[in-house]
Specification:
187 residues, four-stranded mixed sheet, 1 helix, 16 strands, 3% helix
């Protein structure tokens, strides 16, 4: 096991960024907080992945707020530089989904409202369809048009695609884990 230490933020072209996919901001500053560049980053030992963070945790005893996807229960998503498209973040308080472009330093830019539903989890399939956990699972095509609704027996909290062909949607809920095979083509 390796202890990671934050280092000053810098551009890391070609590296995978681990970014929050949902935030609760009742101060009505969701866009401001999400587009503010983080001053520090954690770098994986193999140099392939980094996690932007707002503050050196060694300074957190001063009473300042500290948030890092690395040590927070907030769900994170992976942004790979070769992925085409935008990164989606749920505004839990505003109950909306926003899309962002991702800069090489892991900061988000160019926010665009994507959907009027949003809560805890967001996942994107191989065809660019966006799955949103908000009581059930709302499915949107890449343009933001709702194309499906997946009813879940209990409130979903997190979503991720997996399986050999990445077409199985895993749904973490309050007390259970569900899996559903998604459609194999673009909607």
């Amino acid at each position: 096991m390796t202890v990671l230490h934050p280092e000053p933020a810098k551009e890391r072209p070609g590296l995978v960024a681990s970014l929050p996919i949902s935030r609760w901001r009742d101060a009505h500053d969701f866009l401001q907080i999400n587009t503010k560049p983080a001053p520090f980053q954690y770098l994986s030992p193999d140099g392939t992945t980094f996690i932007p963070t707002t503050q050196d945790p060694h300074e957190s005893g001063s009473g300042r707020q500290f948030f890092s996807p690395a040590i927070s229960p907030a769900p994170t998503g992976w942004y790979r530089p070769q992925q085409i498209g935008r990164f989606f973040v749920a505004d839990e308080f505003g109950q909306k989904i926003w899309s962002f472009s991702v800069n090489p330093n892991g900061s988000l830019a160019d926010p665009k409202l994507f959907a009027e539903e949003g809560e805890a989890g967001v996942a994107v399939d191989a065809h660019g369809n966006v799955y949103v956990a908000a009581g059930n699972i709302f499915v949107y095509d890449p343009t933001g048009k709702q194309i499906d609704l997946i009813e879940v027996p209990e409130r979903p909290t997190s979503l991720v695609f997996g399986g050999k062909d990445r077409q199985t949607l895993f749904i973490a809920a309050r007390s259970s884990l569900y899996a559903i095979r998604t459609k194999s083509k673009r909607q």
